[in-house]
Structure formats: C-alpha cells, structure tokens
C-alpha cells in the first residue's frame, strides 16, 4: 500500500482523475443515507476529502459508516473529478477499513468551539481547523527564518539551555538544581552550591545571545533559534514562561544596518508564509481576524518607521489619549504606549531606538550622550514588542564598567568579555519572540493558542 497524502492529492488532483488511490486519515464528519454515505476524512492537510461509500461496493458498510468522529481509516478508491461541486473531487471507495475507533466522548464533535475550551483539551485541540492553520503557519514561518538566514551565509548555532549567566540581568530566571529542596546544604548560613550538580548556581537561559556572540566572533554572522525561559510574573496574552526566540548576531554591523536586516527578515518571512499558506490564512482571515490579510499585505509593502525613544515620549506626552501608566522620559514603555504608537499614530511597525540606559541590559552600546544606549525594539500593531535588539558595547572598559554599575559579577562574564579582548568590533543583534511572530502572522490574540502546551505563570498542563 502506498499512501497518498491529501495535500499532494489537492496539489495535483486533475492528474489523479479516475485513478485508484489509497489515503489514511481521521473522520471529521459523516452523512449516512442508508446505502450511501459521505465521510469527511482529514489527514492533517488543511483541506479534507469527501469519500463516497456505497453499500453495494462495500460489504462492511454498516460498520464503517457508523463510527464516531475521530476514528482513523484506510480508504482505497477512485478519484472522481467533480468540477461543478463545491470540492473539485471526491473519492469513490472500493475498500474502507477502520484502523482505530474513537470513543463517543471525542470532544470535537462540532465546529465553533472557543479557544478557551480548546485549551482544556490539549491532546485533541490540534485536530481542529484552527490549530491546523496555526501550527502549519508556525512550521512554515520557522522554515522561512532558516531559509532567509541560510541564503545570507549565517551559521545556525545551538546555544546552551542551562546557563551560569543572566543575559538580560532582570533576575527572571528559573533555577536548575539537584539539591534536596527540603534540606538544603548550608555554608555560612547560605545555600552551599558547591554541592549542587554543577558546583555552582545555574538556571535555564533567558536568551542565547551571550553564548552565541562567541561563535559570531568566529563566523561573522550567526543566528540561534531555540527555547528560552522566563520566570516573569506577567499574566498577559503575550507572555509565556517558555517560548522560542530567534536571535541573529552580526559582526561589523551598526544599529541602522541591524534595523535594515530586521525589516528585510520580517517582510521576507511574511511573504513566504503568504505564498505557502494561502488556505490557512484565508481561513484565519474569515474566522479569527478580518483584517489579517490586508494587514500582512500592507506590511510587506510599507517602510517601517524609525523613531527615537525621546521623540516617542514627546508624542505620548502630547497624546489626547489618557494612559493608565503616566509617561515621562526614563520610564519603560507599557504595552498601552507601544500600541498607541503603532496602532494609532503610525498604523504600521515602528522601530523605537536609543532608549535610556537604565531600563536596558548591560551589553548595549552606550551612546555619546551618556544617557541612552543603542537599543532598538520593533513594535507592531496588535502585539507591541515583537523584537528586542541593540548594537553591542564593543569597548571592553565601558562594558566592564557597566557590569560593575549594575552589580553583576565580573567573573560570571569573563568568558564573554574575551570577545572584546580579542578582535572586538562594532556588532549588533536582536531577538525575535517567535510566538509573538506567529500571533502576528495568524491574528491569534493569545500566546496560549500558538503554543502546543503553553507554560504560563500559574498554569502548566502535560
Ligand atoms: O527583548 P528581549 O528580552 O531581548 C533579549 O533577550 C535579547 N538578548 C535578544 C538579543 O538581542 N539577542 O526578548 C526578545 C523578544 C522580545 O522582543 C519578545 O518578542 C520576546 O522575546 N519575549 C517574549 N515572548 C513571550 N513571552 C515572554 N515572556 C517574552 N519575553 C520576551
Ligand atoms: Mg525587550
């Protein structure tokens, strides 16, 4: 038996007209008219196939058409082209076999479940149209990222997940330990980490950037793409405790060139997904976000705004809108401010750059004004911050001084500082929150619905 995938059948269905094929898949719905039944079979392709089962040709008719939704099948039959019907072809079955029955409790009996309900059935929710569209797009977007960087000579690196340094210095790390939590070994009243697995205190990484930079200084252009972890107590629709980040790092590259790369990469990946996932995007445009397609099209064709933090503060201070969190120079922007700028003022993606140094990480390049750093966040409508990046502080003395100012331990970063000791250079990089990108590409408004098993504060399943 050679199984034909329904996706391949749709791509080239005319060539299969009147030919015998074998498909496998799961039952989505059944209409039984006693001696004639229509089964809708889905095998993971976005579009399902209609299978016509006639009692005359199928001696096990009663058994195979009286199955519960979710049952799995093997079907052999002839492809019949149906140019006047809604679907361009159907399969007239000559052999139908039930491979696995489905319990009547199968929760996806009908369409139109809420995303909140779907979250309660994590094993089954990927089998509906919504998650089929979202997770295909997630996969295609990841591929687009690899394709984009691969075509531009970047080297893909897998940075460690367990780390002894806090990249963002925000102290939002999940600790990793094999010490017995009920009876911690102590020395001088403090936990004795010399007895821990690694002989020191370690955590799950919040970003692969620092480790990655070592490879960037060997290859010139790298990117890392993997899971990151943040014990951030933010119960919002855009924060997860475990999420994927894609981080390119480029030597001999300043902030303007970095923004050029971000803009080109985002447009490239959107364009790629739009050409590869037409059915999925049309579905999402119809049922999730009516402006999705026009918004994506707009982005590909428009130039992103580049705005200084200081000018953004002026705009926010002049705004007629009342904000929950008041604005003044020096504050970190809240999502209401970011959304006001991208959704109301500019109505397109905005690069916000040159932030106050006190609200940004230690590795960012200090500007000559002594107050700001060469940071850049990309803010997009509907999401807020999609990308965070910066030009890096390449001057060893300035970087070391900043580590001290922020109370970080120089010895924890000595390996990192070596990149500045040997052949330092102007370099830059950024981190794209991959789930937020998938939200942007699908119109899905909650990060919990673009992750398979979301991990958020106070909630974990599976
Ligand atoms: O702005 P962040 O914190 O930047 C960094 O970690 C840098 N080291 C990246 C770099 O320059 N190589 O995080 C980058 C992006 C954010 O813009 C956001 O999209 C996403 O990661 N992000 C989250 N996504 C989901 N849940 C969270 N809790 C997130 N925190 C950050
Ligand atoms: Mg950030």
Report on the structure:
- This protein is an alpha+beta fold and 462 residues long.
- The chain folds into 2 domains: 95 residues, Nucleic acid-binding proteins (OB fold (Dihydrolipoamide Acetyltransferase, E2P)); 290 residues, BirA Bifunctional Protein, domain 2.
- The protein has 13 helices and 18 strands.
- An 8-stranded mixed beta sheet has the order 6-12-13-18-17-16-15-14, sandwiched between helices. Strands 1-2-3-5-4 form a 5-stranded mixed barrel.
- Helix 4 crosses helix 7.
- It is elongated.
- The two termini are 35 Å apart.
- 4-amino-1,4-dioxobutan-2-aminium adenosine-5'-monophosphate binds next to strand 13, strand 17, strand 18 and helix 13.
- Magnesium ion binds next to strand 17.
Structural class: alpha+beta
What molecules are bound to this protein?
4-amino-1,4-dioxobutan-2-aminium adenosine-5'-monophosphate, magnesium ion
How many DSSP E strands? Answer: 18
Number of domains: 2
Q: Give the percentage of residues in beta strands.
A: 25-35%
What is the CATH third-level topology name of the largest domain?
Answer: BirA Bifunctional Protein, domain 2
| Uncertain ranges | none
Q: What percent of the residues sit in helical stretches (DSSP H or I)?
A: 25-40%
Order of neighbouring strands in the sheet with most strands = 6-12-13-18-17-16-15-14
């Amino acid at each position: 038996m050679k199984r034909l995938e329904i996706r391949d059948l749709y791509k080239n269905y005319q060539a299969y007209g009147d030919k015998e094929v074998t498909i496998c898949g799961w039952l989505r719905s059944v209409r039984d008219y006693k001696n004639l039944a229509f089964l809708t079979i889905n095998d993971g392709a976005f579009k399902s196939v209609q299978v016509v089962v006639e009692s005359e040709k199928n001696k096990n008719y009663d058994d195979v058409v009286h199955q519960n939704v979710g049952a799995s099948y093997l079907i052999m039959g002839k492809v019949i082209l149906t140019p006047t019907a809604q679907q361009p072809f159907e399969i007239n079955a000559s052999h139908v076999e039930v491979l696995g029955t489905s319990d009547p409790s199968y929760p996806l009996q009908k369409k139109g479940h809420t995303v909140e309900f779907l979250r309660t059935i994590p094993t089954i929710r990927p089998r509906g149209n919504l998650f089929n569209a979202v997770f295909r797009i997630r996969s295609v977007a990841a591929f687009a990222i690899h394709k984009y960087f691969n075509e531009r000579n970047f080297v893909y690196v897998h940075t460690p997940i367990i780390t002894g340094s806090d990249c963002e210095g925000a102290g939002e790390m999940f600790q990793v330990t094999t010490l017995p939590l009920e009876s911690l070994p102590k020395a001088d009243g403090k936990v004795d980490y010399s007895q821990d697995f690694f002989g020191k205190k370690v955590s799950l990484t919040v970003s692969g950037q620092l480790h990655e930079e070592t490879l960037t200084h060997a290859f010139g252009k790298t990117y890392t793409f993997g899971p990151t972890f943040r014990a951030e107590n933010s119960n919002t629709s855009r924060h997860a405790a475990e999420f994927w980040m894609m981080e390119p790092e480029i030597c001999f590259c300043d902030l303007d060139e970095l923004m050029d790369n971000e803009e080109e990469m985002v447009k490239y990946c959107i364009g790629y997904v739009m050409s590869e996932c037409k059915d999925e995007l049309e579905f999402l445009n119809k049922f999730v976000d009516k402006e999705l397609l026009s918004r994506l099209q707009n982005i590909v064709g428009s130039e992103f705004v580049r705005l200084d933090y200081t000018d953004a503060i002026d705009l926010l201070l002049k705004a007629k809108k009342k904000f929950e969190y008041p604005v003044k120079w020096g504050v970190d922007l809240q999502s209401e401010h970011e959304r006001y700028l991208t959704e109301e003022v500019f109505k397109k993606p905005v690069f916000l750059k040159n932030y106050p140094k006190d609200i940004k990480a230690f590795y960012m390049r200090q500007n000559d004004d002594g107050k700001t750093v060469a940071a850049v966040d990309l803010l997009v409508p509907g999401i807020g911050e999609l990308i965070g990046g910066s030009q890096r502080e390449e001057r060893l003395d300035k970087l070391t001084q900043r580590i001290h100012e922020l109370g970080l331990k120089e010895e924890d970063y000595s390996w990192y500082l070596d990149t500045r000791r040997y052949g330092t250079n102007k370099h830059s990089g950024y981190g794209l929150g991959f789930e937020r990108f998938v939200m942007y590409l699908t119109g899905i408004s909650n990060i919990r619905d673009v992750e398979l098993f979301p991990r958020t504060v106070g909630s974990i399943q599976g």
